[in-house]
Amino acid sequence: MKKLVTIVANLGLLVGMASADVASDQKAFIKHFKTIFPNVEFADYTNGVYAVDQGSREQFEEILDGIPPYEEAVEKGGKEYLKFGLNKCSSLKDPAAARVKHPYFDEITQQVVTLESAIKKCYQQRTGKKLGSKKGKIARISAWISDQAAGQKINVKVESAGAKAAYEEGKVFFYAKRGQFNMSCADCHVYNAGKKARADILSPALGHTTHLPMYRAKWASMGTLHRRYGGCLKNMRAKPLKAQTEAFRNMEFFHQAMSNGLEITADRYRK
Ligand code: HEC
Question: Which spans of this chain does the record mark as coiled coil (predicted)?
Fold first, then answer.
């Protein structure tokens, strides 16, 4: 059995299926958004809902012009990065490179490694303690690390058969209907992007991962991408999942790959 799996996996590699799919998935993704938002430039998708809604854009720009509410937290994250010796772990010693490298598929563990999972691992090695996954220190440190890569582009690579399988799982999760409302992530953030859901305008999934961790007015604090995933699952009345579980890491792998070529931004504010 194992042999058969290996043969099939190698075949996939041979015909170059692994990386071709991501490129064609992203092409279709971008084409869809181009159709519903013909006037939005590709680079502007880093701004989430503000790229597609002029009214809230003005508020956003006002906030960025003042002292953004995340500024202090991000600065603190930089101090914590040093205080806990995270610069001593090879995975994080060059913070800008670390943001650009993650998420990636680790061939040894056959798992997607996210930036936050790398921070958690390093923190535990350095301090002997566990770090949370959603808010507080992890969000501050991850935001500071990401700031060091601001202006560089997301460039998720999905190359091996294992990586491809994780990517496919993540993609399936993103498109699967679930919860009491029988909705998928794509129902809101692909097909209905730009439309209203109660008091909110739905952001396009393209560019979703460029500014996280973020400060959210509703949270009145910083949170990671997986904190937001958890919140959206709750809104869907779906079964909750823990941040950094395999299902979320795989979804992040797909989700970030769809934003390949977009700039990582330090404008970490959302309503
Ligand atoms: C019922 C509609 C709905 C569904 C389904 C939904 N979300 Fe959301 N999501 C929202 C709303 C509303 C917001 C806040 C406004 C915005 O940025 O879109 C949001 C925000 C987000 C954000 C933050 C966007 C930003 O620019 O900061 C991410 C990331 C996200 N959702 C991911 C997901 C994922 C992944 C799923 C599937 C697990 C999902 N959402 C399912 C309604 C939804």
Answer: none
CA of 84 to the centre of ligand 1 (A): 32
Of 225, 232, 228, whose CA–CA distance to 186 is shortest?
232
User: Is residue 194 left, alpha or beta, with left meaning phi > 0 and alpha meaning psi from -120 to 50?
Assistant: left
User: 56: pLDDT confidence band, cut at 50, 70 and 90?
Assistant: confident
- For residue 75, the one-letter residue type is E
Instruction: Note the pLDDT tens digit of each residue in 155-168.
Output: 999 999 999 999 99
Give the pLDDT mean for 179-187: 96
* Cβ neighbours of residue 137 closer than 8 Å, sequence gap 6 or more: 77, 80, 123, 131
Domains of the chain: 16-270 (1.10.760.10)
- Ligand 1: residue of 232, 235, 249, 253 to mutate (most ligand atoms within 8 A of CB) is 232
Catalytic residue list: 232
pTM over 0.90: yes
pLDDT band at 10 (very low <50, low <70, confident <90, very high): very low
89 among annotated binding-site residues = no
pLDDT of residue 101: 98
Q: What does the alpha-carbon distance between residue 116 and residue 141 come to, in Å, rounded to a whole number?
A: 9
CA distance 232 to 179: 11
The rounded Å distance from CA 107 to ligand 1 centre is: 30
Q: How far is the CA of 49 from the centre of ligand 1 (A)?
A: 10
Site residues for ligand 1, CB cut-off 6 Å: 48-49, 183, 185, 187-189, 197, 200, 202-203, 208, 214, 228-229, 232-233, 235-236, 270
